[in-house]
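Open question from group meeting: does this chain pack into something compact, or does most of it stay loose? Before anyone orders reagents, we agreed to write out a predicted structure and look at it together. Recording both the input and the output here so the notebook holds the full record.
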Amino acid sequence: MFGDLFEEDYSSVSNDHYGKGKKLKTKALEPPAPREFTNLSGIRNQGGTCYLNSLLQTLHFTPEFREALFSLGPEELGSLEDKDKPDAKVRIIPLQLQRLFAQLLLLDQEAASTADLTDSFGWTSDEEMRQHDVQELNRILFSALETSLVGTSGHDLINRLYHGTIVNQIVCKECKNVSEKQEDFLDLTVAVRNVSGLEDALWNMYVEEEVFDYDNLYHCGTCDRLVKAAKSAKLRKLPPFLTFSLLRFNFDFVKCERYKETSCYTFPLRINLKPFCEQSELDDLEYMYDLFSVIIHKGGCYGGHYHVYIKDVDHLGNWQFQEDKSNPDVNLEDLQNEEEIDDPLMILKAVLLQEESNLIPVDQLGQKLLKKIGISWNKKYRKQYGPLRKFLQLHSQIFLLSSDESTVSLLKDSPLQAESDIRRNDQQLLKTLTSEPPGLNDRPSCPHWFDINDSKVQPIKEKDIEQQFQGKESAYMLFYRKSQLQRPPEARANPRYRVPCHLLNEMDAANIELQIQRAECDSTNNNFELRLHLGPHYHFFNGALHPVVSQTESMWDLTFDKRKTLGDLRQSIFQLLEFWEGDMVLSVAKFVPAGLHVYQTLDGDHLTLCEIEIADGEDIFVWNGVEVGGIQIPAGSDCEPLLLNVLHPATSSEEEQCQQLIDSPYVFPSNAEIGSVFTACAIPDGVILVNSAESVGEESWTTIPKEDLKKTFREQGLRNGSSILIQNSNDGDSLLTKRGKWITSVNEVDWLQVKNLCQLDSGEEQVKISATVNTTYHPSPDATSISDLAEDSCLRPIDRNGKLLCPVPDNYTLKEAELKMGSSLGLCPGKAPTSSQLFLFFAVGSDVQPGTEMEIIVEETISVRDCLKVMLEKSGLSGDAWHLRKMDWCYEAGEALCEEDAALKELMLSSGDTLLLIEGKLPPLGFLKVPIWWYQPRGPLHHWKSHQDQTNCTFSQGGVWRANSIQDAPSDAHAEVSLRYLGDVEISEDATLVELKSQVSLPPAARTLLVIWLLPAMTLPSFSEFSIPSPAFLRAWTVESRRPGRLLRVHCQRLREYKLGQRTEICLEPLQKEENLGPQHVLLRTQMRLPGKRAYTLPVDLVWDTARGWTAGSLTHQVADFCSLPVEKIEIAKYLPEKFEWLPVPSWKQQITKRKKKKKQDNLQGAPYHLKDGDTIGIKRLLVEDDDFSTVGDDTGREKQKAFALGKKKSQEALRVRSGDVPSGAETPARPRGPEASLSIHVGSFR
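C-alpha cells returned:
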C-alpha cells in the first residue's frame, strides 16, 4: 500500500550535476576501515537496506534480546557449515543474527555486512536494492524468528520480551454487563494526526471512553435491546520492551494523494504507563519505561532514508564528542610537566609505544599525533623543528626509518636515557593522553546516545532527540525498556559478555586477519579527488554560474596529495592548464539548485590542504577573483542564490488578472529583499504568502506584512524549494488572508453514497444515506434506502477505479470499516462473510486484467489443497497440475503457497487478498523450476547458420519472443531478439552452472541429475540438431523484460549463489568456440561503422579483460587491437537502445590532456556509462567518418518515441478532463515512482 514510500531519497539531486556530493572511492583489495573513535560498528547499506540496518542496531543494543539469542547453542540451532546438507535442520536466520551481533560487538571494522543475513532471508539481489517500511519489517522479522526457533529453548524469545495484551470493554449503562475482548500485540500503533504527542495519543486510546447513545445505541446481549453503553480499552499486560509505531503517513481522500505528517509530536524520555493500564494497584516503578531507541525517517511520503538514535545501555561505545576530543586544552591541562608536551621526542615515542610492533607508516604517525594532542605537527612543531620526516631523519639514534622512508619504528637500544626512565615517563604520558576529557567520567549515569546512520556512528546529546519531534526528518518508531531492568556490573563496557566461545574464537581470528591485511596495506592512499571548474568555461546568468558548453568540458577531475600545500596545488593547476594568463584565484564552490555558487576564497599558500579543510571531492572554482565573462560574480554564503517557486495570477491580453495561477521558478540572492518578487514578476503590488515548510498543507502558508517586505529572503527563513504566492490585494473571493493564515472553507460531508448493484425492480440507481463515523455498517431498513436496501445483500466499498472491494462483516461501524465520509458503496447480492470466513479474490494465470477476478467465500480453517480444489471447480478447470500464489503489492504473482496442508489462517491470509491459479506443480524443496530459452543473436556465427532461419522465424503461438526493431538501428542484434522456448528444467539449487548446461545439451538418455520436461510445441530433436560439443560452447543469460539480461559466468559456481529467485528464466546462446569467462571479463558486442553510410556491420563479440581497470583508455586499446587499427585513429561509443542514442567514450588523448597527473582514471562501471555484459560498442574510424554515431534507424526511433510520449500525454489529459480532475493546463508532472514490492522473509519448516 505504501509503494515506493521508503525509497532512498534522491529527490533533491538533479539528473546532471547538482547534488553530486562526495564521490565514494572504492579501493580494491583494501581491508575494511577500523572502528572510529566511538568504538562502535555500523552496518553497510546494500543499496536500499537502511530500514533493516536501523532495526538490527536496535535489536543489537537490546542486551536482553542479544544475550537470549547468544544462549542458543549449535546443538539447538545447528551449524552454518551444515546448511547445504539436504538432511540437516539448520536454523540459518538466528545463526546469522548471532554472527552479525558478534561482529558488531567484537570485529574491528567500521561497518558490518548484512549480505549473509539477507541471503538467509531468501532475498535476491533485487530485493536488497528495494526499500520497505521498517514497521512492517519489525513484524515480519519477529514472525520469522518465532518460526525459526520452534522446538528450541528460545521458542518464546519474542513472546517473552515483546508480547503484551490489550483488553477492549463495552459496559452497558443499564445492567452494567461488561463485554470483553482481549488482543495481543508486539508493538502499539499510535496516531500522529491532530495529536500533540505520545502521551496524548495513549490518553485518547486507553483513557477516553467512546459513548454509544442517541442514534448510535449498543445492542446488549443481557438486556436483549439497544441501550446506552461505553466502550474503552486498557493495557492489561505490559512486556519488558514496548515498541510504538507512529502513523506519520496518511492518505488525503480529497486530493487523492499521500502525505507525511510533519507536525510536532513529542515523546518523553521516561514514561509512566500507569494511567493507561487495567491494573494500577502496583508501585509506580512497575509502570515506568525508559526510551532507548528512536528510528527516524528522513524525507517525504515518496522517498526517504532511515537512521536511528540509540542509547548505549552497556556503555560499549566511547561517548566522546569530536570537538571535545580535539581540544588541546582538555588533553593537556592535567599534565604535571608541560615541557613533556613541548618535547616532540617524548610525544612521538609515546605514540610509537602504543603500537604493538612499534612500527607505523610515517603518514599515520602525523595523524595519530593530531589525534592524541589535538594539534597537528605543522602547527606546533614545524616552525621550530622542520617537517616531520626530516625530524625523524635527524634523530636516527632514536627512530629507524625504512629504506623508502614510508615507515618508522623505535630503535631497541635508544641512548636518549635509561630504559627505566623512558618507560616511566612514557607510561605517565600515555596515561594522560589516553584519558577521557574531564567531566565525562564524573557522570557515570549520564546516558550515552549515538546516531547510527548505516556505516556512520556519531555521539549525540540527549537533548538532540527533541529535534526529531517534527519536520521531514522525524521519529517513526519508538522503543522503550522497563526502568526496573538492570544490567549486571560485569556487562558494563564488556563487549565479550555472554558471547559464545565459538563466536569469540571466530572474531579473534578475524581480527588477527584484519591486522595482517592492514599491515600489508600500510601505504595508504593520501590522494583525494578535486573537481576543477574553469572560469573561462562558465558564464553567469539567472543568479548562478552555468557551463558554456557542457558540464564535462567545463569540469576537470584532479587527483592531488592532500599533504601538499595550497601553493603546490596552484602551481600544479598552472602547469596543467598551460594557457592561463594573469592572477589565479582558487575558491570553494558548491552546486545549489540554481547552479554553481562561489563561496570562500582559499588563502595561505603555506598551509596544507588538510589544514585548510579541503574535503575529498571538493569543487574548486579557478578564476581571477573578480569577474567571469565581464560580469562581476557575487561570492559568499550571504548572497547564495535561492531557487523559489513563485505562484502568481495569470494576466489576460487586456492585462486583467485571471483566476488561474502560474507556477514559475525564480532565482533570488539570499540577501535580497522579499519585495523584489514584485519586480521580478512584473506585478505592481499585492499580498505575498510564503510556504517555507515545504509542505502542501494549507495551514503552512503565512502572509508577509507590508512592513516586512524589506526583510531578506534569509531573514524570512526561505530556502531552496520554498513557495511564494502573490495574490491580488483586491481579490477577496478566491484566497482570503486573515490573521496571517490561508483560510479556506470546507463543507462537512456527512453522508454515504450507495449504488444499487442488486438489479432490483426499483427505479432507484443510487441514494445518499446520512451517516456518522459510528454508523453501523450493514444494510439498514431505517435509512433512506433502495427498496429497504434489499434483503440478503451486503454493502461493499467501491474504490476509485470502480472495483468492488471485500464486504465488511455486519455490525461494523464506519470507523471500524475504515470508511471516509462521502465514500461510495455498492449494494450487492449475497451475505457478508462471518468472522470465521474469508472473502478472497482469485484469477487464473499471472496476467490478471481488471474485472476478471472471481470471488469466493471460504472458512479460514480450510487447507490450501481444499481451497485450490474449490477454485478450480468454480473456474471450470480440471487436473492436479496447479498451484496457488498470493498476489503481491505489484499486482504480480508473489510467493507460492507451498504448504498444501496448512490452513489459510496459519498462512496469515485475510479477507480481500487475491490468489492466483498458476498452472504447473511446484518444484520440491531445494529445487528451482527454470524456463529455458534458446537465444540466437545476429552475427557471423556460420557454425549455426544452418539453423538460424528456423530460430528467427515467427512463432505465432508464443514459442518465440520477438521484439520489433527499426531498420538500420545498431540495436538490431538486440532489438530483434529471438528467444525460442525449449522447456522447463527442474534442477537443484546446489547444482553448478556447467551442470545446468550439460543437462540441457546432453541427449535425453544421458540426463541423470535433473528432471527436464518440454512443452509439446517444441520437441527435443529440433534442439539436438545443434550438435553442441560441450557445455563450454553455451553462454547463459538471465531473461529480463524478454531480453538477455545478466550474464552467468564461472562454470563451477552453484545456482544458489547467483540468487536467481523462483521466477528467473534463462536463455542459452550458442558459441563458435569454448568460453569460460572469469569475473574480470566483460562481454561486449562490437559493430564497425560502414564508410559513407549511416549503418553498421553485424555485431562481433569482444571479451574485454578489465584486470587493468575499467578505464576508457583500456577499453579503447582493447578495441583497437581487436580491430587491428591504430588506437589514435578510432573513436568508440556505447549504444543506448532505450533512447536510440550513442554515448561517446573519451579517447586516450582527451584523457591525457585533461588528467595529466591523474593516476586513477574514470570508471566505466559508473555513471554515465554503466557498462555491462551485452552492451553494444560502436567503432568509427576518425579519418573516414566525420559525422556522429547515429543511424537512420536512430532518427526514426526517436521520432516514434516522441510521438508515443505526446500521444500518451494527450490521452492522460483527456482522461483527467473527463473524470473531472484538475485541468490539464495546471497539472504538474509528477516524479516517476518505482514499482511497488511486497516484503517477505523465507523460513524453513522446523515443526
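Observations to bring back to the group:
The mean pLDDT is 78.
The two ends are 32 Å apart (CA to CA).
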